[in-house]
Specification:
The complex is a heterodimer of chains A (315) and B (367). Chain A has one domain: Orthogonal Bundle (ABC transporter involved in vitamin B12 uptake, BtuC), CATH 1.10.3470. By secondary structure, chain A is mainly α. The radius of gyration of chain B is 21 Å and the shape is globular. Classes of the chains: A mainly alpha (315), B mainly alpha (367).
Chain lengths: 315, 367
């Protein structure tokens, strides 16, 4: 067990933790934007999955991971728009709509994947984002190799933390978005277009979820496998709650889940304390425990999940 | 104070839950039919992308499902787990809970059944089989009781926890069939064969087995429980309006936990069905996602037992036909789950449409 405490092991562990946290963080940031506007979109699981596939398609057809990431963003945006149309325009139930999108994405990604690469279950390796050492910063002992030898999309997820926080809490745009999520009727009276705000928020949320999917295929594995998202969308949903709907909070919870995941993956190879199937349950158990731990301290946006239909005014 | 992600949830869902003018009578048949047709229409796009004429693909699908004795018996065989797990989803939904953990409950239910089936050698089927069924339901219900209790006690979103429990349950079963429960000498990740006394008898000299009858019996039982017992009344009252139910003296938390446990038991029985009717031993990946298909089955069936039996047969027909379609025209059978997702989207959309049109009209009149 002493292998656990060498500095090489710890650097390796935390750097993998940061890498594994990135897709959770990216999806959680998108979901924070959506939920702050009042929409609970559990369809981000599907957006991650389908985004992961279209990232591979884009990179495969063009030879450039940038095109892959862009396809993933567009895929996520499309699913976000479908969600917005059914929940905002038609006023449909958000949880049911999100579930439908997840089922659709699971079916469609498997279908298109088998169509493109055969029934075998592996895509060939595509061009991906290679690790990018940042000059000077990556030289810092311990910290450097953990945080500053990552790939572009991983940096982007962490750069988005202050960006999203700034837009949410320091701009008029963020103020109206939060108003739509807390008091849609009051926001409406103030002249804020609640429907449009929610459309924009959940579309951006979908884009970030799609991008999160592209991290899985263009920065982690470099191939697509069926159901590659494996519940990460739901872990990201839990990270939003655990992070109390704040970008910085989401970052810490994503890092917690990421490091736990990295740890169980390493324990699978170096120890025979527990069989790997039981180790693999750790991120999921931790997610449940995190939700228990935050009970009584988590206050969601007040109108989260409730449809707002203008004609209800005054009725 | 509502505590969690699902402050989110159940505002009344008229289209899915209770009888509105809309879901009564004719429209409760017409809406699902329209949703299916629209889903097939949109689903023809990915089929056309594959370079196959959608009409050819759908014809092969139809013939595969009901065009032969084999097809029909496959459709009936595959319908039993879908109906049972669909009933499970619907029972929780009637209480305003969104149990998407059916897949994990199926695996844990199968585990319960197998633990009995491996130990009852020498017993008569009249005792062995009911015991195995009971264990499947019990294990499924206990597995669902945990997210149910977390929801009732702490307000933690069952939407997230039930999904987490899927991954936990499936992994636990994967471990057990390699470890403590593996059949000696342990070459394959599977248990030994269950005592024959627990096996469902075969019917009509085909692959159809007793499990289909079990599924129909539980559909009838669920109807009686929901609409003709105090428990069913309480569950539905909580589902329609928890605070009104509380005010009326109904124990809301207890109803929620009970609804989740019954929901999990029904999903667990879908696992039992696969063990006693098909596999006769616990293996990995024996469910091709019945727990997820069940959500679509229940929503298309409008969370009503009769609707669920019909939509269970419809989706199992799609599943049975998909294999034939894949062989005939090379369309991957994953198209079925794509169609299911589309069906649910159209069910929601079409249920909301009349209100949407009414709103449009009234806002036009204001102008």
């Amino acid at each position: 067990m002493e292998v656990l405490f060498t500095s090489d092991f710890l650097i390796n562990l935390f750097s993998a933790g940061v890498r594994l946290a990135a897709p959770l963080l990216m999806a959680a940031l998108g979901e924070i934007i959506a939920e702050r506007s009042g929409l609970l979109n559990i369809g981000i699981e599907g957006a991650i999955l389908l985004g992961a596939l279209f990232a591979v398609f884009g990179s495969d057809f063009s030879g450039s991971p940038w095109v892959g990431a862009l396809s993933a963003i567009l895929t996520g945006a499309a699913l976000g728009l479908v969600f917005a149309f059914i929940t905002v325009t038609l006023g449909g139930d958000q949880v049911v709509t999100g579930t439908a999108i997840n089922i659709l994405a699971l079916g469609l990604s498997t279908y298109l994947f088998r169509l493109a690469y055969g029934l075998e279950g592996f895509s060939h390796e595509v061009e991906f984002f290679r690790p990018l050492a940042i000059p000077l910063l990556s030289e810092i002992p311990f910290i450097g190799p953990i945080f500053f030898k990552q790939s572009f999309l991983v940096y982007l997820a962490f750069i988005f933390v202050p960006v999203v926080a700034y837009y949410l809490f320091r701009t008029m745009w963020g103020l109206s978005l939060r108003a739509a999520g807390d008091h849609p009727r009051a926001a409406d009276t103030m002249g804020i277009n609640v429907a449009r705000t929610r459309y924009v928020a959940v579309t951006i949320g979908g884009m970030l979820a799609g991008l999160a999917g592209s991290i899985l295929t263009l920065s982690h594995l470099n191939i697509f496998v069926e159901n590659i998202s494996a519940g990460r969308g739901f872990i990201a949903l839990a990270a939003v709650v655990f992070g109390q709907w704040n970008p910085a909070g989401a970052m810490f919870s994503a890092l917690l889940f990421g490091i736990a995941d990295a740890l169980q993956l390493r324990l699978q190879t170096i120890s025979n304390v527990l069989p790997y199937q039981l180790l693999a349950t750790i991120p999921y158990i931790l997610t449940v425990l995190a939700l228990v731990g935050v009970v009584g301290r988590a206050y969601p946006p007040k109108a989260l999940g409730k449809p707002y239909l203008r004609e209800e005014r005054g009725s | 104070m509502i505590e969690n992600a699902d402050a989110a949830k159940p505002e009344p869902k008229p289209a899915l839950k209770n009888k509105t003018a809309l879901s009564s009578g004719l429209s409760s048949v017409l809406l699902p039919l329209a949703a299916i047709l629209l889903a097939m229409l949109v689903g023809s796009i990915p089929i056309a992308i594959a370079g196959v004429n959608p009409l050819d693909a759908y014809r092969e699908l139809f013939i595969g499902a009901v065009g032969s004795k084999f097809g029909i018996s496959e459709t009936i065989v595959k319908s039993a787990p879908l109906i049972l797990a669909g009933l499970g989803f619907a029972f929780a939904a009637r209480c305003g809970l969104f149990n998407i953990g059916g897949e994990g409950q199926i695996y844990i239910g199968a585990l319960g059944t197998v633990l009995v089936g491996l130990t009852v050698h020498g017993l008569t089927p009249w005792i062995a089989m009911p015991l195995a069924i009971l264990a499947g339901g019990l294990f499924g219900s206990l597995w669902a009781a945990i997210p149910g209790a977390l929801k009732a006690r702490f307000g933690i979103s069952e939407v997230i926890t039930t999904i987490m429990f899927n991954y936990i349950g499936i992994n636990v079963v994967a471990y057990l069939i390699r470890g403590p429960l593996v059949e000696p000498p342990g070459h394959f990740p599977e248990t030994a064969e269950l005592a024959k006394a627990t096996w469902y008898p075969m019917l009509f000299g085909s692959r159809v087995h007793f499990g289909f009858i079990v599924a129909l019996l539980f559909a009838a039982l669920m109807y009686v429980v929901l609409w003709h017992t105090p428990l069913g009344y309480q569950v539905r009252a909580v589902g329609m309006n928890p605070s009104a139910a509380e005010y009326a003296g109904i124990k809301v938390k207890r109803s929620m936990i009970a609804a989740m446990m019954i929901s999990g038991a029904l999903a667990g029985l879908a696992g039992t069905n696969e063990m006693l009717g098909i596999q006769h031993r616990l293996i990995e990946a024996f469910s091709p996602g019945y727990g997820f298909d069940a959500i679509a089955v229940a929503l298309l069936g409008q969370n009503h037992p009769l609707g669920i039996v019909l939509s269970g047969l419809l989706f199992s027909g799609l599943r049975a036909g998909a294999g034939a379609m894949q062989r005939a025209v090379g369309i991957p059978d994953a198209i079925v789950r794509t169609l299911q997702g589309l069906v649910v989207l159209f069910v929601i959309a079409s249920a909301m449409l009349p209100q949407f049109i009414a709103r449009m009209r009234s806002s036009r009149q204001e102008k």
